[in-house]
Specification:
This protein is mainly β.
Amino acid sequence: MTIKPLKDRVVAIIEQPLKKTKSGILLGESVEKAGYAVIQSVGPEVKTIKKGDKVIYNDYSATKVKLDGTSYLIIREEDVLATL
């Protein structure tokens, strides 16, 4: 089953941020809740994000959905903070 976003929303899969750098430095947690995700599909009104983009999003504004054992996020385009 696939999720088809409507209007200005995108569907993404959560990607866990690094807890340690390649050289072994441990990273602390941020006070603000921003997360990383990979875009799986985009709604018809989305203009700046495309499928496959890695994005940073505001965790508080995302809707979390678990479907067939996979955790998805539904996010408004305006709640995507940056692309990587």
